[in-house]
Amino acid sequence: MLTITIREGREKLLLKHHPWVFSGAIEDIDGKDGCGFAKVVSHDGSFIAYGYYDEKSHIVLHLLSWNIDDTMDEAYIRTLVKRSVLRRRSLFGMKDTTCFRLIHGEADFLPGIAADCYGREIRLIVSSRFASAFLPAIAAELDAMLHPSIIEATVDRSFASAEGLPERTRTFKDGIECGEDSSRGNVRFIEDGIIFEAAPGRGQKSGFYCDQRDNRGIVEKAAAGRTVLDLFSYTGAFTLHALRGGAISVDAVDSSESALRHLLYQVHINEDEKTIAPGSREKVTITSADCFDYIRTVESGKYDMMILDPPKLAKTKAALDNAMKAYKDLNRVAMLKIRNNGIIATFSCSAAMSVENFRMMLSWAAADAGAEIQLLRTLSAGEDHPVRLSFPESEYLKGCLIRVIKD
Ligand code: SAH
After folding, report:
1. Global pTM?
2. What is the average pLDDT value for the chain, to the nearest integer?
3. Is the shortest distance between the CB of 290 and ligand 1 below 6 Å?
């Protein structure tokens, strides 16, 4: 095992259990290996934590355990996987939901790996060299615990080049890595009783945004009798919930044509299976467009409910200033266009944007739009995407349900 000494004064966050160590915080590495488990000590030699070092990773050292009695080996990684799954024991009993997160990266003490289950399938998203190195062990443990039909792992595009990871899909059956099965069809799953399908291979995220599950229920309750605009709709999960909630109509807009086609397909499936009311498909329109432009063309007063769920606009803290402008502009125009007393469910999935900044952005947008806003509910990811308080970066999804008042 390597021994890594942290520079004096740079150990404070580490002692508070923040798991990321960048190369600038390292004073010395005792050992020749470019990657491997490491004992991490402060400048006076006292134990801080165990971690995994990889000189080729953009975060060279990920801390894994602050307990000196733990043994760092593959079995320990499997234990972390097991604990993560067991923490979600109650979710397996849900009657109407078969899609949820099993491992939420650093928040579950497993850096750079997310695991979602989709009924009998498990899909992994790899965003660190650590996760890539231990993928067979992670898959083997998930298989031993849950016996999925298949485990499929894709590399998160936004981290592939920084981590030097090839963007290939790896699949595991019975816990053993195997070649891709090109005949594999969509996997069907349910979220709160609504039917969805995800195609195999690299879609967005692991195929579905299960982090929004609770918020879709809230949107559904608020949608009755409303004319809804679902911006950044992807495959229409909010659209379907709004329809079931009794929306008069839903116009869905996204830049991805294939996502929009899939949205219509899913509306059809749900109408056929009677999970949404007959005639629902006539209430939906799809438009492929850039939502930042599209919102400007919307007729004022047409909608009394909007969903704004843009992709991650601030990829880093440095990009936050520009991203704040984009978020503010989007929300400002939405507030201008929506009917008096209309409801907006607005989100940011940028970890760099704090809850406070998000609220401040909304209040500035409202002032510029000449509107008052009432915060009806604070929105966040579900409990299968926990926020680890020693790692504030895990609070990436934030949202507000607001009422826009213009009289
Ligand atoms: N609301 C969705 C998830 C949205 S993810 C759900 O609940 O499932 C963000 C979506 O924004 C993606 O579908 C992506 O295709 C789309 N997107 C990204 N940039 C866009 C842009 N400039 N205009 C329109 N859509 C965009």
Report:
1. 0.95
2. 95
3. yes
* Pocket mutation for ligand 1, best pick of 232, 238, 344 (most atoms within 8 Å of C-beta): 232
259 CA to centre of ligand 1 in angstroms: 9
Residue 119's Cβ-side half-sphere holds a number of Cα atoms within 13 Å equal to 13
Report H helices in 233-272: 237-244, 257-272
Ligand 1 atom nearest to CA at 212:
7
Contact 383, 102 (CB under 8 A): no
pLDDT band at 181 (very low <50, low <70, confident <90, very high): confident
In the block, which residue shows the tokens 């008069």? 248
What distance in Å separates the CA atoms of residue 61 and residue 212, rounded to the nearest whole number?
Answer: 31
Spell out where 77-207 has E strands.
99-104, 113-118, 121-126, 150-155, 170-173, 176-178, 187-191, 194-198
Q: How confident is the model at residue 158 (pLDDT cuts 50, 70, 90)?
A: confident
Give the atom of ligand 1 at the shortest distance from the alpha carbon of 230. 1
